[in-house]
Amino acid sequence: MNDPLFWQxxxxxxxxxxxxxxxxxxxxxxxxxxxIDDDTDELYFTDINCQLLDQHSCQCSDYANRxxxxxxxxxxxxxxxxxxxxxxxxxxxxxxDEGRALPLWHPLRHNGDKTLMHxxxxxxxxxxxxxxxxxxxxxxxxxYWPLDECED
Length: 152
Ligand code: SF4
Ligand code: SF4
Known about the structure:
With 152 residues, the protein is an alpha+beta fold. The chain has one domain (17-147). Helices cover 17% and strands 11% of the residues. The protein contains five helices and four strands. Strands 1, 2, 3 and 4 form a four-stranded mixed beta sheet that branches. The longest helix is centred in the first third of the chain and has 7 residues, at 17-23. It starts with 5 loop residues before the first helix and ends in a 9-residue tail after the last strand. The site of one iron/sulfur cluster has 8 residues, from loops.
């Protein structure tokens, strides 16, 4: 990438497609099932992951065909800004959109290395159950760790 610090001086609107893609830390939190309280409209994360999520790498196992295979998989774009409401507080898109910086563990601060992100617990690694392995109501699996930004 010609401009490794692009995220510090470009707005989300100014970013190229490759820069936009590079912003994603690969935490996997947006691939968790969510619950919305009908009375309050409040959003809750669960610790249930999408069937296509690789629980170790925290990556989609079929990224190219994700929309064909998972009907409610959402592409994060500025055109669909409402999709930002589904993102966790640590998500790079949400943070930059809110005028905040990237977290210290973000791979873009470490030449793309995700080791620190996993080490500080900012990804879903080791914390989730696949939707193919659970039964019962989603409400039973509400989790608050996805809201943690894993920073001091
Ligand atoms: S929550 Fe944000 S940073 Fe994490 S995987 Fe999803 S889009 Fe990428
Ligand atoms: S299809 Fe892939 S990108 Fe979409 S929610 Fe599932 S694991 Fe995530």
